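Incident log, structure service

09:12 report received: a user says their structure output differs between two submissions of the same chain.
09:20 pulled the input from the user's history:
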Amino acid sequence: MRVGLPLSDEPLLLAEAKLAAPRLRAGMVRRPRLDQALENGTDAALTLVAAPAGYGKTTAVRAWYATTASALAWVTLDAGDNEPARFWTYVATAVDRVRNGLGRRALHRLRSQAMAIDVAVDEIMNGVAEYGQPLTLVLDDLQTVTDRDCIASLEYAIERLPVNARLILLTRVDPTLELARLRGRGALAEVRASDLAFTAAEARELLVDRAGLELDDDQIGILLRRTEGWPAALFLAALWLQAVNDRDRAVLEFGGDNRYVAEYLSQEVLAALDSDHRSLLLRAAVLGNFTAELCDAVLGRSDSAALLSHLEESNLFVLGLERREWFRLHSLFAEFAAARLALVEPAEPPLIHRRAAEWLRSRGLVVEAVQHAAAAGDHEVVAEIISEDHLRLIRNGRAGTILRWARTLPDDVMTEHPDVAVAAASAALVVGRLTRERRRYLLLADDAATHAERTRNYVECVASIVRAAAVDDGVSEAVARGHRAVALARREVHASLVAAHAALARALYFRGDLEQAWSAASSAVDHPDATRRVPGYAVARATLALIAVDVGRLSTARGHAEAARAVVGRISSSRSWLGAVVAEAVGALLVAEGDLAGAERELAHAERFVGDDIATVEHAWLLVRVADVRRRRGRLDDAERTLGQAREELAELSDSGDALELAAGVATELDEARRQASGGEILELPTDAEVAVLRLLATDLSARDIGRRLFLSPNTVRSHIRASYRKLGVGSRADAVARAEAAGLLAERNHPGDRSELA
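09:34 re-ran on a clean worker, output below:
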């Protein structure tokens, strides 16, 4: 039923139901045009099947597959898959079941401590390529996955899909992939609701040929217009019309709104069932995917297997998956049945959710358990699971999961469980850009800590770590909080010692105390369990890299920066505050090494996860760093704007530590750069073609890339660059940009000689 796979050093249990493609029902309407539409997309890397619920997306793809010779790897996703490691473990397992061994290397990567999602994705693609034969990977219900890292890793996979493979995504809403770019490259095939809607001929086959209804073309047309071709509604209409006496009147009265569907389902379907079948259907709707064993345990039955088998054979909305022990209800019927149960027996749904949570929790399926506990409003269970599992989840890169769970809890539960409040604050810090939410959780923990003897020291230690690492209340207060965290961790909260030292080191660095910061960060890194405490270890390594850059030890800095990036990559947290901390260190190192374009990319990436609508020391400091890089690159106007933003934030802060002095230094250097850029003599104005090249020198583009953009050869671009340097009286790219900007040559974007608009 479940397959155990470890995530890092913890087991990740997979639901077999999600790895099975639904079986095709006998008597279904064949739709060759959809088969052809899906077949036409074979040459595209990605086929997107997007439509609202009830449009037959799954059935269409499953029916098409029956006509092909391609191997199939199928994954049905759900909200619990909003973690890259979990998401790709399902995919790798599905691929491995096409032929044993195809996903083995990827699964090994995902199991290991050195887990990097991009590497695991590469291994999946390598396995598919080695298979050599056509292989179709289907991801169903993609709309349930919204995590930005999962979507980013999926985009990464699309770009690396082997030629023998195609990816089909089934979703109710368009994913946040770069669909326009894929569409422009011819790499995207699309099947939309308008394609999936029934035609008149298909409606006739369903209603007349399959259902045996005596309807004329006008009546079919009425139903088609009322439903707008929505397959689920037409299917329900067929069932309804089979049961009524006056079909002419029924056709006129039938509509696609939920009231008619609900009336039919309650009066004609449920009423025709005996009490056992009806009771099981209504209650199974609450469970989502289920097995007979789960139904027996949660619903207090012993006959679920026989009942489910009969319901499936009777075509009564029970859909059996290929691995026969797993079932689900038709989604529309499930929604109706759950609502019906809540109406007639309002105490039942919460009870079912509560029992399901207990059953799943006892088997280590905490993600599914929390979903049911939250649906039951069982806040105590959610809080208990967060309390028990938050350290493991955060250390494995699943801070976002903790936050989603914490957001379901009311404040009074947080104050009863202050360890949950600080867990949520820690998760908010690691995720990034959630300053207000993080501070709210910390205030809840503060309110609770005064009467929570059992967790008081732990709560104070973790809250101090968060405040020190985030430099939340000014640099001096952050340093004090860091010292307090270290003292508490040494005395009682030993598991937090690495994070405490790392947070103290970060606060000391922002105060400008490099020697003490180095000592604290070294204590974190040298701890015997440091590499198992990923967030603290990464912050400590990144801080050591920053200090090493500041004192000119670039080789040492690179070692620390690479170690920090590796450990963050293994828990797939590059797109988070934790990843931003590492990007800050790498950006500083690249500045010192002279790679200004690379440095700006790193710092800009960091800013996306540090910036918020509240001024913070870290964000102001980062803006100063970005301004300095832009000044060095000759983009003086951009540098001045960025420095201005930093100064605005610094003006709101009462204790910003070393950032004020850093900003003053950059301002002085920016003034000098402006003086030099304006002081030299322009020997000759560049031509229009040379100005077009000059504008692109302000970007990261190489000479070859500039040539592609302007439809020029690399040699011609280099000739324009040399001529521009001579005419402007400069000797470097940055100086050329600065002088051209000072002279107003770059301001007019629609310059008549600029052919970049053609690219």
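09:41 both user submissions now match this output. Likely a transient worker issue. Closing.
09:42 reviewer note: The longest helix spans residues 659-679. Strands lie at 2-7, 10-15, 46-50, 71-76, 135-140, 165-171, 188-192, 290-291, 318-320, 326-329.
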